[in-house]
Each structure stands twice: as structure tokens, then as C-alpha cells.
């Protein structure tokens, strides 16, 4: 692997960039990670992998070097059959965490998960690669915690059932989160290619 290569993370979300750059530092990867805030095309599709792949392709000729994008979604499996899923962004902007909580009666039996997809365009092979991560848990009966972003204050991960994601430090969240798991795979790829 060459040292000090540049790698671009195309995102306007400071929280995502901060989680990803912390993991890059921890894993001692020899890439300089640079945030690039340009506007890829976000399509409405049935799966996050399609959204991430399209997003990547839509900016391929605007970036000079290897780069990646990420797309995540929050799925309330019980009782909402996966809602908001691919509509997570719109639902967060409209009804938000309070709105989601109003839709749930029995928090004890609730089930939810996050999924994250990283889509990487890797210049040495001139190809696109996808990396997926998932974390399972349930919905908190109230909004708790001040860290993180988005749905973090209402998600309780199975791996740390006493706290919501928003009550965990960035490092603790990264160790078990959808984004942390997907990024682990991306980092392993970079270390071996
Ligand atoms: P996107 O990947 O930015 O499109 O995210 C879709 C929606 O899910 C947005 O409302 C985000 O705030 C939310 N979201 C994405 N990742 C996370 C996360 O790690 N924790 C909490 N909410 C998230």
C-alpha cells in the first residue's frame, strides 16, 4: 500500500465525517481522509445499496482520485414493518424522533435496526465496491442522550442495552454501529488492495 494517499469522503454530514475519520485514525490507515461536500444525485429506490451506488456514479467524473459515499437507514421492524427505511431522511425531517415514538405502543417488544452502505470508487482497479454493516436493537420509549445525530436518541443497541446510541461516545458507537461495521470492511479492503 502506498503511504499518504488521498481518499475523499463525499458527504455534507459533519457527524458522519467525524465518526469515519475517528475510525480511520484508530485503525492507523495510511490514507489522508478528506471531506468533499459536493452534491451527488440522491434517487428514491427500494434499497440503500441502489441509492449508494447511484450516488457514487453521479459524481464519478467530478472527483480526481479514489472516493466513497455512504447511505444509511433506520428500520423499525416491529411494529412498523421496516418504516422509515429508505425514507429515513424525509421522515426525520418531517415527523422526527417524536413522531416515530408516537407510532409505537409497546416499546418492550419493539425491534429496530440500522443499515449502512459505503460505495467506494477505487482508482487502482477503476471499479466500484460496496460494503455493508448492520446493527440490531430496539426503540427507546423516550428520547435520551445528546451525542450522535438523527435517530441515535431513540435507538437502543442489543450490544449495549442500557443506553441509546446518543448516550454512547463516538468510539463506543463506532465499535458496534452499522457504520463502524461497514467501515471495518472498507478499511480491510484498503489494507489488502
Ligand atoms: P442518510 O444516510 O444521510 O441519507 O441518512 C438517512 C437518515 O438516517 C437521516 O435522517 C440521518 O439523520 C439518519 N441516520 C443516518 N445514520 C444515522 C446514525 O448513525 N444514527 C442515527 N441516525 C442516522
Number of helices: 6
Just give the CATH class: Alpha Beta
Instruction: State the helical fraction.
Output: 25-40%
Structural class, by secondary structure, is: alpha/beta
Task: List the uncertain runs.
Answer: none
Number of domains: 1
Quote the CATH topology.
Maf protein
Can you name the CATH architecture? Alpha-Beta Complex
Mean pLDDT: 95
Oligomer: single chain
The portion of residues forming beta strands comes to 25-35%
Radius of gyration: 17 Å
Shape: globular
* Sheet having the most strands: 7 strands, mixed
Question: Can you walk through the features of this model?
Answer:
There is one protein chain. The chain has six helices and seven strands; from the N terminus they run E-H-E-H-E-E-H-H-E-E-E-H-H. The chain is α/β, with parallel strands linked by helices and 193 residues long. The chain has a single domain, classed as Maf protein. Strands 1, 2, 3, 4, 5, 6 and 7 form a seven-stranded mixed beta sheet that branches. Strand 3 and strand 4 form a beta hairpin. Helix 1 packs across helix 6 and helix 5 crosses helix 6. The protein is globular and about 50 Å long. The mean pLDDT is 95.
Amino acid at each position: 500500500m502506498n503511504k499518504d494517499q488521498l481518499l475523499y469522503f463525499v458527504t455534507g454530514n459533519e457527524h458522519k465525517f467525524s465518526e469515519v475519520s475517528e475510525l480511520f485514525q484508530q485503525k492507523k490507515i495510511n490514507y489522508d481522509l478528506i471531506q468533499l461536500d459536493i452534491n451527488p444525485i440522491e434517487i428514491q429506490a427500494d434499497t440503500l445499496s441502489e441509492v449508494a451506488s447511484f450516488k457514487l456514479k453521479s459524481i464519478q467524473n467530478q472527483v480526481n482520485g479514489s472516493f466513497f459515499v455512504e447511505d444509511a437507514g433506520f428500520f423499525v421492524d416491529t411494529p412498523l414493518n421496516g418504516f422509515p427505511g429508505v425514507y429515513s431522511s424525509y421522515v426525520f425531517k418531517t415527523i422526527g424522533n417524536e413522531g416515530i415514538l408516537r407510532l409505537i405502543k409497546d416499546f418492550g417488544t419493539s425491534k429496530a435496526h440500522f443499515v449502512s452502505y459505503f460505495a467506494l470508487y477505487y482508482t487502482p482497479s477503476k471499479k466500484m465496491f460496496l460494503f455493508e454493516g448492520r446493527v440490531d436493537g430496539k426503540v427507546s420509549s423516550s428520547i435520551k442522550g445528546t451525542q450522535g445525530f438523527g435517530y441515535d436518541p431513540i435507538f437502543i443497541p442489543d450490544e449495549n442495552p442500557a443506553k441509546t446510541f446518543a448516550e454512547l461516545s463516538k468510539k463506543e458507537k463506532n465499535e458496534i454501529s452499522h457504520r463502524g461495521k461497514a467501515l471495518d470492511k472498507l478499511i480491510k479492503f484498503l489494507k489488502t488492495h
